[in-house]
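Appendix B, record 7
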Amino acid sequence: TSNNNFISSSPSLINTNLTNEHADQSLTLCEIGFNAGLSAVLLLEAAPEARAISFDIDAFPWTRPAASLVRRAYNHGRFLGVVFGDSARTIPEYRRKHPAFQCDMMFVDGA
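Structure tokens (predicted):
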């Protein structure tokens, strides 16, 4: 069985759920596990008014170059970037540094 149907239908499913519930405000989508950035791009494409931030342990040589590409493609207003390090530490630290920051949706694709 192919997983292509799930991948191709995901943007509309995410878009329907996210934009209908929060049509009057910009969403902040948080992701644990950036890797090569494919899920971050999917989230940003599915919710065009949203902004995203990722947290990644930085275990692969392609992660930082991919983060730069996504940052250039979506600018700082939409893609806030990748916070590198162990997410068990970096997420609480990020929250302490940015107390008003809040995730409307958390996508976990890593540990």
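Remarks on this record: The two ends are 27 Å apart (CA to CA). The first strand starts at residue 28 and ends at 32.
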